[in-house]
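Deviations from the work plan: none for this task. Representative record:
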Amino acid sequence: MPDDYRQYLIRLIAMHGISEIMGALPEKEWVPRAPTLHRKLAILAKVQDELGHGQLLLRVAEDLVAPLGMNREDLLNGLFQGTIHFHNVFHMPAPTWADAGIIGWLVDGAAIITQGMLAQGSYAPYCRALERIIAEESFHIQHGESICIALAEGTRAQRQMLQEALNRWWEPLIFFFGPPPKSELTKHQDLGLMYRLRNKTNEELRQRFFHKYVPRIQALGLTIPDPNLRLDKETNTWHYTQPDWSKFKAILRNEGPMSRARLTLRHSAWEQNRWVREVLSTRAAVAV
Amino acid sequence: MTARIETPAQALADPTCRQALVELLFQLADDDLVLGHRDSEWVGLAPHIEEDVAFASIAQDEVGHAAAYYGLLVDLGEAESADALAYSRPPDAWRCALLLERPNGPGHYLENPQFDWGYTIARHYLYDLFEMVRLEALVESAYLPLAQLAAKVRREERYHLLHMETWVKRLARHSSVSRARLQAGLEKAWVDLYGLFSLGPEGPAMAALGLLPGGRDRLWQTWRERAQTLFAEAGLPWPGDPSPVMLDGRAGRHSADLEALLGPLTEVYRLDPTARW
Amino acid sequence: MADERLEYHIYEVFAQESQMAPAVHQFSLLASSPDMALILAKENFLRRQKAWSVWVVRRDHIHRTGPAEAEMFDRMDKTYRETEGYRYLKEKWRRYKQEPLTAQGMT
């Protein structure tokens, strides 16, 4: 395996796996607070799947870093030291139950678009993991849809809660697919195309998201918080307000609203429970 | 030989039976929901990623079992829905044992949690063994709908018990550090252990009517015998019989921990209990 | 050393759907021992699918060929050992059922 191909894969898959682990945290906030027993079970299962996806992806990344003398401990330390980034959406606050619904519906909806493309890439172990993941994501989207539709059909306060959550998540969703072409930020995108790990640009994926979800969001009577959003029927292209991409860069540097809090939560749990991982490690049992 | 009770209507016809059955079902449901809730606070923070995934299944099973027991209470006319029972009762209407409402450790699940894996495993093992013994009695329950449900629940509980036994043995045998952590957890759980075996004021009726065959004595004897076997296998000293507790959760008397748990549990539901969520 | 980096064993996980089904590779996980690997395998890889049995094997106990050896599984024509190589028989039987072979003309 060429070195730069390995390096690209490590960067891609470690970030993906770490993002799944960190991605459990915003929704996890709502697991103990889910408003019915059914919702409690479903959101528990959903967050569990995210952790399971993290497990699959980290295993693939761990096998890639093993020849470099590294393992899972190093990947997690990379997260804590800021050398491995996690996805921009998971730096955002989720202050209401509706946020849990929007994450399940639209963030997972965006994720399945990206993952569907990545699953056709050139590295088989990654594609195998993605196949397992995609099979579960369809449940996640329906779980999110179910929460959002219940709120949309509900009281005025519930609808307002949903609209406010959409307002909060719209910009992170635009950020989700990464910057458009001809930006200094897209060099990784080009390498990905070169190595046949992706066959679509960030903008193509974002357009696909608009085509699929804008009509559905509108069908629930919600207002998308972008007055410039419109479909150019001739070119079949959505026009939208360009967000401030320097903000995106700052989020990835762990300068988002919840970056520090979530990293601290994850890091302190990891350190406090190191003694348990010692029990699970190859470190020999000491006779007691 | 106790009389077989095949339907909710038959159970309702006898006030003594109805009362004992309702109390028993609340104990079963509340134990599982409260522990499932505590387990769910761990999600995303467990010590090992594979364990995080496995532990989340156990949390789900507990909540699922609670929902099924609440369903039997709905059939008996206690409420319109399982959710109404889970989300709208005041603390003194809960029948869980104190052991299960205790937090996983200091801190809040959102802010600076310092959860204790030694206590988590100790408490869960002690409860899962109790639950298995209780389910073995319940499959012979005179109340047929409960006997049938217990048979299904028992299948999932086999995994829980295997999971916890594996951890207990591993922690006990690995190093002085892990053993000390486990023993500290066992000591802490032991303080509340007596209350787990309380069946509350209706306990004698539960046994006499065959709703819970053998009653408290059977639970305690069987439990102690099996727990001692595992302790011996793991090389753990037997802490002795537990002392009676001040607060009996089965009688609706709880610690402040239950109130602290019900706050988040019902937070969204309370925004509008009449809304559909 | 307290802060020495921890190492883990990798276990490969297989599962059988039923007693008659082959054990199919699922994925891999990190665990300390076979018993721990078994309890972790069930919920990590068999949360939805049907299963009858789960197997775990430490990866360093598995011997396998790699990509470099994959070529050796390519083969030349070996239809003489496949039913495909004997398709012409069907046509023969059809003909001889209509017109049995006789000893006539054979010497």
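The radius of gyration of chain A is 20 Å.
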